[in-house]
Amino acid sequence: xxxxxxxxxxxxxxxxxxxxxxxxxxxxxxxxxxxxxxxxxxxxxxxxxxxxxxxxxxxxxxxxxxxxxxxxxxxxxxxxxxxxxxxxxxxxxxxxxxxxxxxxxxxxxxxxxxxxxxxxxxxxxxxxxxxxxxxxxxxxxxxxxxxxxxxxxxxxxxxxxxxxxxxxxxxxxxxxxxxxxxxxxxxxxxxxxxxxxxxxxxxxxxxxxxxxxxxxxxx
Length: 219
What we know:
Distance between the termini: 177 Å
Largest sheet: none
Shape: flat
Helix content: 40-55%
Structural class: mainly alpha
């Protein structure tokens, strides 16, 4: 009696693709390449070699990311909160390690290099904690009404128009129209085109009396 053949072990790095009717394998691969879960899993698989080794299953990575995305979509942010806490703690550990290494350096240039990296890790840890606080306790939106400070006859309405405001504005507009139509207060225009009538001036000019001047002796 022959023994049943044992199925070959699945390659953890091989992506499982379920064939769909009406779609070629190339179309399905293009569709998978655009999925966020696949992209994230491929990056994780590349960088985790020194953590999980080469046995990490790519299909399980994609499924785990899809599950996390569904949790966030449904409003469950517990995984995101745990991630931020873990990152902030890990960055704090990096800061302490680099700061200790900086103190043990013999040359000033090496001390400054390690200390600079330590402070960068510390800043990233603080930023991660700030992001965690914003996620846990989101800031409330504040609505402030506009303050209108105008010089002159300007009218700005904020929100709903109060009762009677429209009729009052219409009355003011009517009074202004009446003032524009009433021209009794205007000065008459000067007819600068008319030719003025010439008036006869005093033509008779009395003769002036002789002026008696002192006679100068002739030299």
